[in-house]
Amino acid sequence: MSVVESRKDMLSALLLAILLFDCNFLQTAVSTSVTYDSKALIINGKRRILQSGSVHYPRTTPDVWPEIIRKAKEGGLDVIETYVFWNYHEPVRGEYYFEGRFDLIRFVKEVYKAGLFVHLRIGPYACAEWNYGGFPIWLHFIPGIQFRTKNDLFQGEMERFLAKIVDMMKDENLFLSQGGPIILAQVENEYGNVEAAYGVDGALYVKWAAETAVGLNTSVPWVMCAQWDAPDPIINTCNGFYCDGFTPNSPFKPSMWTENYVGWFLAFGYAVPFRPVEDLAFAVARFFERGGTFQNYYMYFGGTNFGRTAGGPLIATSYDYDAPINEYGFINQPKWGHLRDLHIAIKQCEDHLVNANATQISLGENLEAHVYYRSSNDCAAFLANYGSSSDATVNFSGKSYFLPAWSVSILPDCVNVVFNTAKVISQITLNDEPFTRNITMRESSLSSASWSWYKEKPGIWGNSSFEASSLLEQINTTKDTSDFLWYTISIDVDGNNKQNQTNEVGLLIGSLGHAAILFVNKQLVAFGYGNHDDASFVLSAKVDFHSGSNKIEILSMMIGLQNYGPWFDIQGAGIRSVVLAGLQDSEKDLSSAQWTYQVGLEGEYLGLDNVSLANSSLWTDEGALPINRSLTWYKTAFLAPEGNGPVSLNLSGMGKGQAWVNGLSIGRYWSQYLSPSSGCSEPCDYRGTYDASKCLKKCGQPAQTLYHIPRSWLQHSENLLVIHEELGGDPKTISVVAQIGQVICGRISEDHLPPADTWERGVGFVSTTPQLRLACETGQRIASIRFASLGNPQGSCGAHRLGSCHADVSSFVKQVCVGEERCSIPVSMDTLGDPCPNLTKTLAVEAHCLG
Ligand code: GAL
């Protein structure tokens, strides 16, 4: 080889090396980064339209996580979002807990295994109807601390926890740049809603939080939700029922929606909120139509507030939220299916949405189109009728399209409608309706179970009591070690002073919340309580004091620490005034008298909920089972229901309290608190702007009667049930409820669109026949067909009737569906026969699935 040749070789080797280096560099930069521009998040070099859903890991058990995530993926989600719950991860400062339901790493890895991304909302403030918004109670006791503002002590703790979580994720290679699933992180939560209450320090705190987050070098973008002043490069995102009018605070940021409420949370004493899927789908379609790029359902699966995790005040134990996956992990239809169809339709437009800008075209009053052109003859379009009452037929590109009121049609090729938000073809599932309960639920009464009990006495029960000459604030006193605080005092009433004929002696008790039972001379006299929106209350009771010394004992209760609002952490609870009224001389204010206190209940102190005390002689079964008695602990054993389906406890015959299964708390219950008898609307018109009070059910009933027992908490042999009843109830009314099946219904007309997933770009609809699709829950099969009619069937799921035109297609449907987990029936007259040739026919089928 000549010198020249060898120099040439060296040069080309160098060039190759540079090229390779460049390629590798590009490769790394492109393949494992998350960035963003005005159009979208850019993942692995590609702009993405992302559907996301909230699943909070501690609101179910780890054995169920893979199933929930699988259903989320099948429902068309790309991302799972969760908060991180500081108070359970660091119950004592410096002592961490990441086990069981709180095994965050395992949860993130489960999402990764399913091939989905993670949005980690580290906060550390969560809100989330979670006790104290996720803040550890010990934080409150650091002298000089002020939460969520410029305060060195708070900022130090917040930074430490943020760094702890980020480091844990890095150590496990869980950020996308490390090959993991995390593509986004959140600092703080909706601080913009409360910022003004913190004055100038609020704005400084926002700036600090942003800088601190960015300084943690996660390699993924950070978001701050509902934070108009989020500093660059943090993306400010929208939260709300609708976000299609949202614009981020910089032209370089994408339009992202971090909380799209699929329903609303439940509080004791309230009716149950739900959100019709037609409206939810409309909100989502409008968001993407108008330039949105990332959308998260809050919640996609809500789950359960086990133990004392519920926030407050008065947040219920169920966190079902009317989510696409229900509290028990079952698919909630038609919500899940209709959204899945919507996600398919939006995905079919993804390339156009991220690579083109919208051209907006007015189609008339309340009618418009947004068209995304990649070239003059290659476009995707959304047609919207955002009027809430009038259906319309619009002309778009020379064709006419029918648009029901409050709906959006999606045309991935600007011609074919593959989806309309108001036309639901997904099946309906009835899980727990009174008219199908006997075939979907198996209820085992505990009336003949053998019960033991422990009767608590009102008032001071042990030697840890203490005195103070004022009424103490409850959280500062209990440190949230218990829901309960006893306020007790003895008063002397002399005969002369006692009563005249006209005045009644009464006690007026003012409380900051949340509830209180008044005992006088060991007798229950009155019960007072607030509500979620205002937990304070006044309890006024007429009291029959006797001459001499009288004992006043007030059991003040908290039902979840406040989780929302400016300065929520110092809102406080407990009794704040006690006045004796109607004495002959004058009123007597007892508020500054000498009170004796005790934190917690005797039964809690004894540990009656523990499995280790199940055989203790503290429990008795001698004499008659006490019923309708306050402050009573009950214990029994029950067998786990057969099968794998959801299990719950029906506590409708109880008052208020808490229940434990095998030593684990399934949450607080409150069956005696009925919701207002009016204000419900079922069915609820989906058209028009939705808010949390628009669509309610279960008026005049308890917010909740069934309390979820996770399957993994049950053993095959006997299971220990312990109940603490605070007000009075009858444990013989309790039953164990197992879900054994479902009633499912499908209904579709012959002129309906074929399903969105049968459409392909450049091909059109692969099948032209609409299909009626039915699917049971995992593990169940169609056992029978309860109704099948082609014609103009009447009624609704669970209550179908034949119409004037009817072909009995039951035997065909049975043949196709019975014994199957899922089936689909083409709505074709050729196959089914035509009962009335001049009518547009509908096929309706009702099936019974059994596990
Ligand atoms: C939001 C908050 C969420 C949740 C929601 C209501 O304001 O960010 O964490 O509390 O309200 O369910």
List keywords for this structure.
single chain; 851 residues; alpha+beta; TIM Barrel; Jelly Rolls; 8-stranded parallel beta barrel; 6-stranded antiparallel sheet; 18% helix; binds beta-D-galactopyranose
Describe this structure in words.
There is one protein chain. With 851 residues, the protein is of the alpha+beta class. Helix content is 18%, strand content 32%. The chain folds into five domains: 32-330, Glycosidases (TIM Barrel), CATH 3.20.20.80; 359-417; 433-455 and 606-737, Sandwich (Jelly Rolls), CATH 2.60.120.260; 466-600, Jelly Rolls (Sandwich); 741-850, Sandwich (Jelly Rolls), CATH 2.60.120. An eight-stranded parallel β-barrel has the order 4-5-6-7-8-9-10-12, surrounded by four helices. The chain has a six-stranded antiparallel β-sheet with strand order 23-32-24-29-26-27. A five-stranded antiparallel β-sheet has the order 13-14-15-18-19. Helix 8 packs parallel to helix 9. It is globular and about 95 Å long. It binds beta-D-galactopyranose. Beta-D-galactopyranose (GAL) binds next to loops. Beta-D-galactopyranose is lined by residues 127-129, 189-190, 239, 259, 265.
Give a brief description:
With 851 residues, the chain is of the alpha+beta class. The protein has five domains: 32-330, Glycosidases (TIM Barrel, Alpha-Beta Barrel); 359-417; 433-455 and 606-737, Galactose-binding domain-like (Jelly Rolls); 466-600, Jelly Rolls; 741-850, Jelly Rolls.
